[in-house]
Description:
2 copies of one chain form a homodimer. By secondary structure, chain A is an alpha+beta fold.
Amino acid sequence: MDRLDRKILRLLQENATLAVADVAKKVGLSTTPCWRRIQKLEEEGVIRKRVAVLNPEKVNARVTVFVSIRTNAHNPEWLKRFSEVIKEFPEVVEFYRMSGDVDYLLRVVVPDIASYDQFYKKLIAKIEIRNVSSAFAMEQIKYTTELPLDYMVLDKEPAQASA
Amino acid sequence: MDRLDRKILRLLQENATLAVADVAKKVGLSTTPCWRRIQKLEEEGVIRKRVAVLNPEKVNARVTVFVSIRTNAHNPEWLKRFSEVIKEFPEVVEFYRMSGDVDYLLRVVVPDIASYDQFYKKLIAKIEIRNVSSAFAMEQIKYTTELPLDYMVLDKEPAQASA
DNA sequence: TATTTCAAGGAAAATATTTCTACAATGAAG
DNA sequence: CTTCATTGTAGAAATATTTTCCTTGAAATA
């Protein structure tokens, strides 16, 4: 992984429809080596997938709720069951195990508060939870799928562009 | 927007590299109308973009921190300035204005705790904040870019597939 | 310094795939 | 029975992917 790989990743994180030739041009490479690099990044799993990102408004996914969860059952069985339950809910788009006084944090996406209430009832019907607290987002000011690449570990200097 | 559009979106949310012909086959349509639908979904902005999703581990983005922010300055100027500052940080991948006792919530992605501390110092150097509290994620159990489409508003019944 | 080796890039072309356009057919609604 | 929206078939044009083979330059070794 060198600076060229990073440049390629940056471009594809922004726009995955770019043709290999265009990526190549932008990073200052010809198509063949650029194609080989992308291929490799995919094989290695650096690039996990390519997806379409939708407009939340347009698909009626207007409300984001952060759900903080505390549990009594601090054991792997409970977590396993809980994870499986959560993964079934398409409304839960993110799910973290946390340090600190909150045990788990969910990001839930629904059309409105009423739908959130329905989701909430479905959730607590499926699994026992000690304590749930919901925080509503009023506005999504920034949302990106792009990971910061400045921290990426570079094996070596980028190969000098040969004449 | 009917059930066919929804089906198309579901597929493209999962995998944006699918050829139109493949999408068509899966939704039970021939390529032309499927192509036209996708075209329209893009024009209307339902599909916002297509992106490559990277593996956080592989690009050294291992630690997620949720940063809760309280401010004294409840005015549009401060928010504007704050937003601009935040948008400059590639480490901040999500940013919400919240209801409740927390004013803003950030999701920050960095390689490790030391980097988070550096980020934190950079942030408070740039803008005055009353109160910051950081919660560290130990594990990302679920993360998806797919929005739930079950809530999508359908104009009408899907057109009957014609013979 | 000469020579070998190796990793990476470049050009070009074959292949494959995709996109996009015309035009005909269908079925529902009025 | 007319109209309108939508689909289907087929094919041309454009693009993209992938392979083959060659070149280059850096590093290693004698």
